[in-house]
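In pairs, describe these two lines:
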Amino acid sequence: MRRSLVMGNWKMNGTRSSAESLAKGIIAGLGEDVADIAICVPYVFLPDIGNVVQNSRLALGAQNVADKPSGAFTGEISAAMLMEFGCKYALVGHSERRTYYGDTDQSVAARFSQAQEQGIIPVLCIGETLEQRKLEQTFDVITTQLDAVVNLAGIAAFNNAVIAYEPVWAIGTGLTATDDQAQEAHLFIRNYLAAKDQAVAEKIQILYGGSAKPDNAKGLFAMPDIDGGLIGGASLDAESFLKIYHSV
């Protein structure tokens, strides 16, 4: 039985004090241990939030990781650096990184591998745009994005990874995939992996990452191949985030 994971992505939001307050509020409301829970915070907040979450069930994650181990790469943060601050997870390939900052399938695969080399669990974000969905290219896009990682790191790398399916058309738009639409994509991802390694497919957590909110999370999480969520805006409010967590 796979354990669910609810992960918050704070994106570029908050101040030092508000970040600490939000993390403390989440910890205070955790209650029953129903699933894994984590927050991916801006780099500059990692030291402070790392101290807040220490000795709690709330895990720490970064929003990106460099595709190189070190060197003359101004503005990048290496996996080794993230490990020093207690990061358990790192997002790789988030649609905003792919759309606005030029991440390619190949650079995302390199980021994925860099995270794993330092013992960080990569959260591989994949998904299609609205135009690609209208052209019925969803499964082709997902396959290409997964192929890039498998070709570089091998299928066994997914033994220690998380996948987040994020339909790009449902991020920050107010649109959300229906339960059945989300399940269809998640099942496709799991079947893709199963064709290469059944054990990997059965073990891996696949999260839904397209505008999940307290009022729709329960239906999404009830789907057999949806193992939790990568939560954006709703993770910036402790009460909303905790409602999603407890809806598991």
Observations:
- The chain has eleven helices and eight strands.
- The two ends are 14 Å apart (CA to CA).
- The domain at 5-206+216-246 is CATH 3.20.20.70 (TIM Barrel).
- The CA atoms of residues 127 and 142 lie 6 Å apart.
